[in-house]
């Protein structure tokens, strides 16, 4: 299975390309913004496509040609304004979905936000609300297609080393007596592992689930969904 990773140069994306290249049944195609980012992926033996998510759908679709699956793990980052969030996390995601359709790629995995329902939008801090809104509508757009989608909702992302163990459910149990952010932490490395397991498990098609740090081995957690 050849997998196009949109946002490959991001922190989840780099882990994901590495894990895909280590799997004998998977092959990565890293979609990056500039040639300067290519060396890391070429050293892993991954194919590279230089594409900006603000390019036209046709440009993204060309990068998706020949792929069996697309993973969208791109993000505008925490230091950009609402305008860039709109252009990348919403419009970039929608264009990538449409590009997958145009390139006849049925399998699509979206990396979203921990919660993107209306309650999450209304309760989000002002600075974070545009991101949740963008993810909400990108998720809804994906669900309205006939793509074989999976939506992964990671908790509070950290750069801690992964443990290859998570808690994963449509809605995970969050301890009420603990600090909320601490209770939903999950290493980016483990989210990348979850994506790999998701790509290899057709039972995840049509599913959306939250992921936080936990005690269940990733393959087993994904299998349970």
Structural notes for this entry:
This protein has 225 residues and is α/β, with parallel strands linked by helices. The protein has a single domain, classed as 3-Layer(aba) Sandwich (Rossmann fold), CATH 3.40.50. Helix content is 40%, strand content 23%. β4, α4 (82-102) and β5 (107-111) form a beta-alpha-beta unit. α1 (11-22) crosses α8 (188-199), α3 packs across α4 and α4 packs parallel to α6. This is Sugar epimerase. InterPro entries: NAD(P)-bd_dom, NAD(P)-bd_dom_sf. Residues 7-201 form the NAD(P)-binding domain. It comes from Planococcus lenghuensis.
Q: Counting H and I runs of at least 4 residues, what is the number of helices? A: 9
CATH topology: Rossmann fold
Helix content: 40-55%
Stretches with pLDDT under 50, minimum 5 residues = none
User: Main sheet, how many strands, which sense, barrel?
Assistant: 9 strands, mixed
Oligomer: single chain
Overall pLDDT score: 94
Across the major sheet, the strand order is: 3-2-1-4-5-6-10-8-11
* H and E order: EHEHEHEHEHHEEEHEHEEH
Level-2 CATH architecture: 3-Layer(aba) Sandwich
Q: Determine and state the CATH class.
A: Alpha Beta
Through-space gap between termini: 22 Å
The CATH homologous superfamily corresponds to NAD(P)-binding Rossmann-like Domain
Rg result: 16 Å
How much strand content do the residues show? 15-25%
């Amino acid at each position: 299975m050849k997998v196009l990773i949109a946002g490959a140069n991001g922190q989840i994306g780099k882990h994901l390309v590495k894990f895909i290249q280590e799997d004998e049944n998977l092959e990565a195609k890293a979609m990056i913004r500039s040639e300067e980012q290519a060396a890391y992926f070429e050293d892993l033996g991954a194919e590279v496509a230089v594409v900006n998510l603000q390019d036209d759908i046709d440009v993204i679709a060309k990068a998706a040609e020949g792929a069996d699956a697309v993973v969208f793990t791109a993000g505008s980052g925490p230091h950009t304004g609402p305008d860039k969030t709109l252009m990348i996390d919403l419009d970039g995601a929608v264009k990538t979905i449409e590009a997958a359709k145009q390139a006849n790629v049925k399998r699509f995995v979206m990396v979203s936000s921990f919660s993107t329902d209306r309650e999450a939008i209304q309760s989000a801090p002002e600075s974070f609300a545009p991101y949740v809104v963008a993810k909400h509508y990108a998720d809804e757009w994906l669900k309205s297609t006939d793509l074989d989608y999976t939506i992964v909702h990671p908790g509070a992302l950290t750069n801690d080393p992964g443990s290859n163990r998570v808690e994963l459910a449509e809605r995970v149990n969050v301890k009420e007596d603990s600090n909320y952010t601490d209770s939903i932490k999950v290493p980016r490395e483990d989210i990348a592992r979850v994506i790999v397991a998701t790509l290899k498990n057709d039972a995840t098609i049509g599913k959306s689930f939250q992921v936080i740090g936990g005690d269940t081995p990733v393959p087993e957690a994904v299998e349970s969904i």
